[in-house]
């Protein structure tokens, strides 16, 4: 049921404080310094001792996997590869003893992801599934895994399932980091507390959804858009662009911000909106200079910034503020305005946002 919302997509975007909370329920006990994902109980050792983690997914789920690469490498000190399921399954991939494969899928039915894990399983890998639909094919094929508990996602564009996937990945990464002793205890406790307060911060962004709405009305006639981010927010740039393409049919591409000068910068003129994710993190100074490069070419800059930021506010044409949070958790917040921006742009352009043309909720054909 859509309730008071005009579309399922909007309802699902607004459910995120609840779905993220539900996903952490019984798994995160921040006040006790505990994090435990029950579903992977029997594979904690394998994960902690894995020489390599290979993440396999498609679309939005792949973007969650890309965030997890930064995360697992930083907090668990393990090599992570992220791969499109459709590429993995048709290559002749190398699987070694001690490799762990994590498949991420909202539906649990994506054909390419399913076949890819069947192949990896035959080759001897341990398969963990992170899925939303209980009892679907991918969890049934996996050795173990964790559900995202986001509830049914009806809108074709994935929103609440994405933030729930990220949440599960944070929980698993933190549990493994604790197990391995790869994270300083004080930081570990702080991140647990910050994760605990994420639903509240997501709510705060949603309370200001009118900002994304008003920006949508300014840019709804754009022919094309560029999304740029670095580090943890590079995959979020890809995700923001994917949402925009799907929902509004505006051509949008995401890049790591530094790649701009290797090609995409040629596209920038006074009609090109460029969405920057420019939160206060390790790459902040670099992003600020990327914004200057776009402004020097008269591009229109929208920037997602940390509350209270002034430097970017002075440079950008528009900013959307998000609450301050440890850098590793920013994706859970920075993606929200991008979902809203895509949604409102699609609605204003008269698109069928819940069922975009040519798309299906679960891609069971290759
Ligand atoms: C984008 C979207 C798709 C899916 C992709 C994978 O909004 O929904 O890109 O993320 O088709 O689907 P699942 O996660 O069901 O394997």
UniProtKB/TrEMBL annotation:
<keyword id="KW-0677">Repeat</keyword>
<comment type="function">
    <text>Catalyzes the first step in hexosamine metabolism, converting fructose-6P into glucosamine-6P using glutamine as a nitrogen source.</text>
</comment>
<feature type="domain" description="SIS">
    <location>
        <begin position="43"/>
        <end position="182"/>
    </location>
</feature>
<protein>
    <recommendedName>
        <fullName>Glutamine--fructose-6-phosphate aminotransferase [isomerizing]</fullName>
        <ecNumber>2.6.1.16</ecNumber>
    </recommendedName>
</protein>
<dbReference type="GO" id="GO:0006002">
    <property type="term" value="P:fructose 6-phosphate metabolic process"/>
</dbReference>
<dbReference type="GO" id="GO:0006047">
    <property type="term" value="P:UDP-N-acetylglucosamine metabolic process"/>
</dbReference>
<dbReference type="GO" id="GO:0005829">
    <property type="term" value="C:cytosol"/>
</dbReference>
<dbReference type="GO" id="GO:0006487">
    <property type="term" value="P:protein N-linked glycosylation"/>
</dbReference>
<dbReference type="GO" id="GO:0097367">
    <property type="term" value="F:carbohydrate derivative binding"/>
</dbReference>
<dbReference type="GO" id="GO:0004360">
    <property type="term" value="F:glutamine-fructose-6-phosphate transaminase (isomerizing) activity"/>
</dbReference>
<keyword id="KW-0032">Aminotransferase</keyword>
<feature type="domain" description="SIS">
    <location>
        <begin position="215"/>
        <end position="356"/>
    </location>
</feature>
<keyword id="KW-0315">Glutamine amidotransferase</keyword>
<dbReference type="GO" id="GO:0005975">
    <property type="term" value="P:carbohydrate metabolic process"/>
</dbReference>
<keyword id="KW-0963">Cytoplasm</keyword>
<comment type="subunit">
    <text>Homodimer.</text>
</comment>
<feature type="active site" description="For Fru-6P isomerization activity">
    <location>
        <position position="361"/>
    </location>
</feature>
<keyword id="KW-0808">Transferase</keyword>
């Amino acid at each position: 049921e859509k309730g008071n919302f005009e579309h399922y997509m909007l309802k699902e975007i607004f459910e995120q404080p609840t779905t993220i909370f539900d996903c952490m329920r019984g798994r995160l006990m921040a006040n006790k310094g505990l994090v435990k994902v029950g579903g992977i109980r029997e594979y904690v050792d394998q994960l902690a001792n894995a020489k390599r983690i290979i993440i396999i997914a498609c679309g939005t789920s792949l973007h969650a996997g890309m965030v997890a690469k930064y995360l697992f490498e930083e907090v668990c000190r393990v090599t992570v590869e992220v791969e499109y399921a459709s590429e993995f399954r048709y290559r002749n991939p190398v699987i070694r003893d001690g490799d762990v494969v994590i498949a991420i899928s909202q539906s649990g039915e994506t054909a390419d992801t399913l076949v890819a894990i069947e192949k990896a399983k035959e080759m001897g890998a341990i398969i963990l599934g992170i899925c939303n639909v209980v009892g679907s094919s991918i969890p049934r094929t996996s050795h173990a895994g964790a559900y995202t508990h986001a509830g049914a996602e009806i809108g074709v564009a994935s929103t609440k399932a994405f933030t729930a996937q990220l949440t599960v990945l944070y929980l698993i990464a933190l549990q493994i980091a604790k197990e391995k002793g790869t994270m300083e205890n004080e930081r570990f406790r702080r991140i647990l507390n910050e994760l605990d307060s994420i639903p509240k911060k997501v709510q705060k962004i949603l309370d200001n959804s009118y900002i994304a709405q008003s920006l949508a009305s300014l840019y709804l006639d754009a022919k094309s858009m560029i999304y740029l981010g670095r580090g943890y927010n590079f995959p979020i740039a890809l995700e923001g662009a994917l949402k925009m393409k799907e929902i509004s049919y505006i051509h949008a591409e995401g890049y790591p911000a530094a790649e701009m000068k290797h090609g995409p910068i040629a596209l920038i003129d006074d009609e090109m909106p460029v969405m920057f994710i420019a939160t206060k993190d390790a790459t902040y100074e670099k992003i600020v200079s990327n914004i200057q490069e776009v402004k020097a070419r008269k591009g229109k800059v929208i920037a997602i910034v940390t509350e209270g930021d002034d430097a970017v506010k002075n440079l950008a044409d528009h900013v959307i503020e998000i609450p301050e949070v440890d850098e590793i958790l920013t994706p859970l917040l920075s993606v929200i305005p991008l979902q809203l921006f895509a949604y409102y742009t699609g609605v204003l352009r008269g698109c069928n946002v819940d069922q975009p043309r040519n798309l299906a909720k679960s891609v069971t054909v290759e």
